[in-house]
Amino acid sequence: MPRVIESYEEFVHRHGGDLTNIGHNLWILPDGASVRNSALGLDPHLIEPPTDEQARLNARRQYHAAKSDYFGESFAKLKSALQGEGPRFNWDVKKLGPPPDGRDRMDAGQREDEGVAALRLLMEMTHQHHMAIADLDRRLNSLPRVQAERLHNEAKQREDREWELTTLRRSQSIAAQVQALDI
Asked: Is the pLDDT of residue 38 over 70?
């Protein structure tokens, strides 16, 4: 079978094209594929999405959580800049897409409607990723393995509570007996 060589750009495009940083030298794509950059400056390590469904859903959740965090932080920074309470906001076209009004710098000197359109766009982008996270959480929670783990953890918590109550009752009983002896 012939070996197919894929370029970095082809790999990124095939997996959704939107690299998002989730840690030191680690980037994730919408479908859960990832790219690990070498600290030594070597070629990046291209990693296909996990084949395990739970791991793949968790990877996709990481992507949406990172995007949601970025858009939420951008919203807060832009709002602060528009209110004159923070530095000028530079719209990062690579990460945020084109600005709604065509401007890539925003501050308190703008007309209110221009800033509001950008804030709405950021709020909508954040909301879209929150909805994706909620959908992925529902899908994760419906996996048999996750349900079994949850049931096991709930049973363990019940056992722990029962043990704590038993220990507390024994301590109280012993304290009562000691107190009765002091009379």
From this structure: yes
